[in-house]
Every structure is written in C-alpha cells, then in structure tokens.
C-alpha cells in the first residue's frame, strides 16, 4: 500500500502548505519526487478526489506540506489553458507559497505567461523553478523567465537532482518560521460524526484526528470507557467530533439485535452531524450494516467520506483489489469517495484531512447566481427535460443553503422525471466542481 511513511502520520494544522504548479510536461512530478524524496501519498482512484498529490517534506529540521493539483488536462489548447489555470487557482487558494515550475529547455511559453499573470494577480508568494537545466553552464536559461515578473528564477534539474537543496532552502526562507495559530474561519464548528461497526477502528481514528491519546482504545469490544468531546482544527477549520459516546458505546442486546441497535444509533448520529466519516474494516467485507448506514447518509444527502481502515493488515498485492471491492459494494447509483487508511499507523491521515477540508469548503460554498444559471443553461442545452404531456421548462436556479449546498430550480410546474433530476444534479456538480460534496436540488413552480 502506498503512503505508509510514518513521517506523514501526524496531522498538524501548523504545517505550511506549498503548491507546485506549472504547465504540463515541465517536469513537475519529477520535481515533486525530488523535493519529497518520493514519500508522496498518491491517490488516483475512482471515487477518491482526482489528481491531487500531497506529501510532507522535511528539510533542515523543518517541515512543510507540498502538493501538486495538476493531473493531465485533456482537451484542445483553450481547454488545456483553462484547465491548468483552474488548477493553479486551486493551488493559490490553499497554499502559503507557490513554486511555479517552468521548462528551461523549452523556454518561456504563452501558457507560462498566462499562468504567471494569474499568479501575479493572486498576490500569493511565488518562487520560479526553471527545470531541465541539466548541466553546468546552462544557468543562462533562467534569464528569460525574469519576464514573468518574479524575483530570481532558480535553475534546477529534477532529472539530475541539481539545484534541489538551494530550492528547498529558499522555500523555507519564504515560509513563516511558525505558522500563525489557526483560527477557525467564521467561528463555525463543523460537526463530524465517525460511524461504523464496533472494532473497525473508530476510536483509533478519533485519536489520530484529535492528535491526542484521549480516548481509551481496546481490542476487546465493550471495554472502552467514557469519552470526552473533542475538537480539532485543521487548515483553519474547526471540527467537533460528535457523539463520542456512540464511538465506543457498544451495543448491549436487550431483545434488540446488535445490528439494528447500532444502525439506529448511527442514523441518529448522522442526523446531528454536518459531515460523516464512515469507517469500514479492510480486513472484512463490508457488512449489511455498513451499507445500511452509508445508504442512509446518501438518502439524507449528508456530506460523506468513507474510509477503509486497517490497510496495514492487507497484503501488499491485495490493496487495490480490496479497495475496488469496497467501492463496488458501495455503488448506490452515485460515486462515494473511499479512502484507504491505517488509523493505527497513520497512513492516509493527511489525505483524509485534506479531503475533509475540501469537503467542508465545498459544503460551505456560495455560488454566485450568474455562474449558477450558466451551469443550469449548459445542462439544459446538453439535455432538455422532456415529458409525455406538459413539457417542463426550467427558468432559473437559486442557492438556498449550505452543508450540503442546496438549490431550487424554478419551473413552469410540469413534472420533472426523477431520471432528469439525477442528470441535472450530476451535471451541476460536475460543472460547479463539487468533487466530494453532495448537492440537494428541488424544483418549484415559478409564481
Ligand atoms: P472501534 O470499536 O471502532 O472504536 O475500534 P477501536 O478503535 O477500538 O479499534 C479496535 C481494534 O482495532 C484495536 O485493537 C485497534 O488497535 C485496532 N485498529 C484500529 N485501527 C487499526 C488499523 O489501522 N490497523 C490495525 N492493524 N489495527 C487497527
């Protein structure tokens, strides 16, 4: 399994975040591996957020997190430019510093120039790394990149490993020594439910997330003691793990089956939560009970991440198969993000935290009305609603709330087929870039 490096194990909300951005083929992934020493956590699987690679870098006793949002962007030139620009914006939105990678052999390209413009306008600190300067005496290649308007482009060769140490030095120079203490944005607490069958590792995960050994963990079901409500902060968001009692209250069958009792309990917990982490055990097939809880989340449109825990106990060659099996069992007509982790060893935890962050960001998003209506129009152009009698017309759309984002589409009152509602939901999520958050769509007759 990938990402078992213990260095990546401890969540830390104080680690600075550095984004690697650049046009395709400039050698970003090579450089990423050089900078991180290949300790990257790579997930590029169905249902898991696409094309984000993240790793912890350690240099001279200091640490920062490095991420690369860029996967390959398909499409023609225009689409490619837009796609890369979007990735750059994503990087800028999250990072404390951007490392802008360009190709010293190819020279300054129009795409570099347009990315440079986006970066300058963002106001984010930028370091330019001129890659593919493979040999002594080629440093002159950096000269033309001064045009981008950032100080001192640095010559590196990811291939040969040249210039990597000075680049790391410079990155650390530009990062604040100590990140400022995280303040939750807006003071809102995100209520997080951790649900799953007894012994799947909920308490262990809870400990990981809160970063403290506060809960008593035992391998014998029913032996854990009373919990303490816990909050943790990650990337300026505050999370409160709700119903920590339920985390370790093991079902005591009193005429009721253990299974029924725990599903009901989990559903009650889900109702009181903003975001749900459903924990599955990778060493056992997902049980009916797991599926019932996850299905309920989807029905209630609860923002959900499924984690497949205990991946450290899965034989190396079987990891992918086990993951696919879990993804397969969880098909409820929509994609459910499934993330492999080991709560015990800490692998996958940084990725989980960054997915949580992304999910929370998406859930709290307010989409400006023009963009929303443009997305509706695009979807209708792609496929217009049809009906046997009265043809539905969709006039406009408005956002009515968040967590998860909910919308109302105003219509002429004609019946909308469920299959069309599903299509529209899917299309809007795609267009508005909701990778993880569900959205709720309602239809109302325009008065
Ligand atoms: P809960 O009942 O869901 O809260 O489960 P616990 O957190 O109490 O974990 C049950 C048992 O599984 C304990 O012995 C844990 O140490 C073990 N465990 C939890 N997570 C992992 C993991 O990622 N890998 C392994 N190998 N064991 C784990």
Q: Count the helices. How many? A: 12
CATH architecture level-2 label of the largest domain? 3-Layer(aba) Sandwich
Kindly name the structural category: alpha/beta
* Poorly predicted runs: 1-13, 39-50, 179-185, 212-228, 248-254
Cα-based radius of gyration, to the nearest Å? 24 Å
- Would you report the number of β strands? 16
Shape: globular
Question: How helical, in percent, are the residues?
Answer: 25-40%
CATH C-level class of the largest domain: Alpha Beta
Count of domains: 3
- Overall pLDDT metric: 79
Beta-strand fraction estimate? 15-25%
CATH superfamily of the largest domain: P-loop containing nucleotide triphosphate hydrolases
Which sheet architecture does the biggest sheet show?
A: 7 strands, mixed
Q: What gap, in angstroms, lies between the N and C termini?
A: 56 Å
Q: Which cofactor or ligand species appear? A: guanosine-5'-diphosphate
CATH topology of the largest domain: Rossmann fold
Please trace the helix and strand order, writing H or E for each element: EHEEEHEHEEHEHEEHHEHEHEHHEEHE
- Widest sheet: strand ordering: 2-3-4-1-5-6-7
Keywords summarizing the entry:
about 450 residues, six-stranded mixed β-sheet, GMP Synthetase, Chain A, domain 3, Rossmann fold, 3 domains, binds guanosine-5'-diphosphate, alpha/beta, 16 strands
